[in-house]
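Input.
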Amino acid sequence: MDCLYKTTTKYTFEEYKKFNRAVMNRKYILVVSIIAVLMILTGGILLNNIFLILFAIIYPILFFGAAEIGVRRVFNSNKLIQNAEITYEFYNEYVIERHEGGEAKIPYEKLDKILETKTNFYLMIAKNQGLMLSKENMPEGLEEFIREKKK
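Output.
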């Protein structure tokens, strides 16, 4: 069977960070964080407690800083993907992922879901594990091909 499309993605920290944002549903986390800050701030004002007011101001910095550190720690722990050039070959029934550590053949029906952002596609093979595809390097027709597989 002939390869229909071929593309590559470089797994940089920035790409991994985008993947993490898409997978972790940042909108939900942001809404919950805003509600928590407003509740703490309200409590601080009502109780006239300067500590709670300061904590409400510092909380977002601490929360998102800790999240950034966590993402960096996970990325740095996986030496296989750091700055690796991953090649994807698309066929009618499956996609093949190739990198210096080996290759994987993934049938489309085994994908958990396909996420799309402005800059990437994420072919999810589990809830928090997937293939990161940068739209930047995609050949003509591949985006539509992936959208069809999404249905």
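DSSP finds four helices and seven strands in the chain.
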